[in-house]
Write a structure and sequence with these properties.
The complex is a heterodimer of chains A (160) and B (284).
Chain A: E1 3-9, E2 12-18, H1 24-31, E3 50-53, E4 56-59, E5 72-74, H2 89-96, H3 106-119, H4 125-131, H5 142-157
Parallel strand pairs in A: 1-5
Antiparallel strand pairs in A: 1-2, 3-4, 3-5
Helix pairs in contact in A: 2-5
Chain B: E1 2-4, H1 9-19, E2 23-26, H2 36-40, E3 45-48, E4 57-60, E5 63-67, H3 72-77, H4 87-94, H5 99-104, H6 107-113, H7 119-125, E6 129-133, E7 138-142, E8 147-149, E9 152-153, E10 160-167, E11 173-181, E12 188-198, E13 204-212, E14 219-220, H8 222-228, H9 235-245, H10 258-281
Parallel strand pairs in B: 1-3, 2-3
Antiparallel strand pairs in B: 4-5, 5-10, 6-7, 6-10, 8-9, 11-12, 12-13, 13-14
Helix pairs in contact in B: 8-9, 9-10
Classes of the chains: A alpha+beta (160), B alpha+beta (284).
């Protein structure tokens, strides 16, 4: 029997009819068509499905959607300014310093970086690498990704 | 499938009593996607236990008490596990470097779902106990008697784990954990936890050696413990104990062969024992 839950995604409330065992990633992609969230390993290990739940990074492929009810969820689609379309500094830095090759890990990398910078606005390179420990990049772009996150931290110092 | 969210332990237990084998309990949910088929195929009800108030870390005269739904990050960063023997729990959790997973995972979930991870090995080394409740009674069981095999334990369909307890240990007790793995995102190939107490004459007066992931459930290396008990310790006798601890048949799976597990198990036990001994000498 499906259950009806309310999810707050990128500031908008959605009522969805779901099966209790569906993952949050599945619901975001298949029910809300927010396909920026990627499903790769499907067991919480690779970080591609990372979204923010009340500001905290979670692996949405292993998070049961029913457990996300009433929480504020941010996906990659919700990071830029909704009104103006202005990109978030982390997104800008990823474009400026080519923080991706194939792009599959990028949404998860950016949201993991967002959670890190919200908690620690001036991380060291080691702290950035530590925060990315659970995010895999199959293209091996880690050095550039680290550079992008440090650059974004610098950009955000100006209050952005 | 129905989804239920009780707000008290009594309510959750009466639901378990009603639905029994038709119910699946969820707290953090880390293990659900990978084990979806085993867990959900037959289930009719999903019961979330996240709102029962079982999220606590307490230290009293009996020892450390962890509510079943306490998440791993909270345990790792708690004052209670920052020093002394309980620090081994923080060590074991910090060997999982993915914060997303330690934020989601709960101690009750680690104990019930995953004897193949790190915390159960460390908890058994500290003589951890599991508080099991049903709507009619509650019982306390040593964690080492909790497991029956892979993803299998002694819980009856109407029971659930509500608390994990760890006793206090005498002064001059040290405890340590060591893990060997393929990579940070995978389950361990092997892990080991050791606890050593030194008596007034500096001889070993208490010891526990646990080896995880070599078989299911974790193994207590009693033959290695016997080698150390009552003796003065040094690197040589610890090396002999590590050899004895791995005189067992180890499983072969996609992560490693039984042969590799045996070799790495010896290394993990030796490192854990040496670290535990250093801590015990330091008075901890």
């Amino acid at each position: 029997m499906a259950v009806s839950i309310s999810l707050i995604v990128n500031g908008e409330e959605h009522r969805v009819e779901i099966e209790p065992w569906w993952s949050l990633a599945h619901v975001l992609r298949e029910e809300l068509q927010l396909t920026g969230t990627k499903i790769m390993c499907n067991n919480g290990a690779c970080g591609s499905c990372t979204v923010l739940m009340d500001g905290q990074a979670v692996s949405s492929c292993v998070k049961l959607a029913v457990l996300a009810e009433g929480k504020n969820i941010t996906t990659i689609e919700g990071l830029a300014e909704l009104e103006t379309g202005e990109l978030h500094p982390i997104q800008e830095a990823f474009i400026k310093y080519s923080g991706m090759q194939c792009g599959t890990c990028t949404p998860g990398m950016i949201l993991t970086a967002k959670a890190l910078l919200d908690e620690n606005p001036t991380p060291t390179e080691d702290e950035v690498r530590g925060a990315l420990a659970g995010n895999l990049c199959r293209c091996g772009t880690y050095k550039r990704i680290t550079k992008c996150i440090l650059a974004a931290a610098d950009m955000m110092k100006g209050g952005r | 499938m129905e989804y239920l969210t009780p707000t008290t332990t009594d309510e959750a237990l009466s639901l378990l009593n009603k639905y029994g084998e038709d119910a699946v309990i969820v707290a953090g949910g880390v293990f659900f996607t990978p084990h979806k088929e085993e867990l959900f195929n037959e289930a009719k009800v999903l019961i979330s236990i996240g709102k029962l108030g079982l999220d606590y870390i307490k230290v009293d005269e009996e020892g450390l008490k962890l509510g079943a739904t306490t998440n791993l990050t909270s345990i790792m960063t708690s004052d209670a596990t920052s020093k002394g023997v309980f620090r081994v729990l923080s060590e074991a959790i910090s060997s999982i470097p993915i914060k997303r997973i330690t934020d989601m995972g709960t101690v009750g979930g680690e104990v019930c779902m995953s004897a193949e991870t790190d915390l159960p090995t460390a908890l058994i080394a500290l003589d951890g106990r599991v508080v099991i409740a049903s709507s009619t009674e509650s019982r306390i069981l040593p964690l080492e008697k909790f497991y029956l095999g892979y993803l299998s334990h002694v819980l009856e369909p109407n029971e659930m784990v509500t608390e994990i307890q760890v006793p206090h240990f005498p002064p001059k007790t040290g405890a340590a954990f060591h893990k060997l793995e393929r990579g940070t995102v995978d389950l361990p190939i092997v892990n080991a936890a050791a606890r050593i107490t030194l008596g007034p004459d500096d001889k070993c007066s208490g010891v526990k050696i646990v080896l995880g992931c070599v078989t299911f459930p974790p193994v207590i290396a009693d033959n290695a413990e016997k080698l150390l008990m009552g003796n003065k310790l040094d690197e040589k006798i610890i090396a002999r104990a590590a050899e004895a601890a791995t005189d067992i048949e180890c499983i072969t799976d996609i992560r490693a062969s039984g042969e590799l597990r045996k070799r790495w198990g010896r290394i993990a036990v030796e490192k854990a024992l040496n670290k535990a001994y250093e801590q015990a000498k330091g008075g901890n």
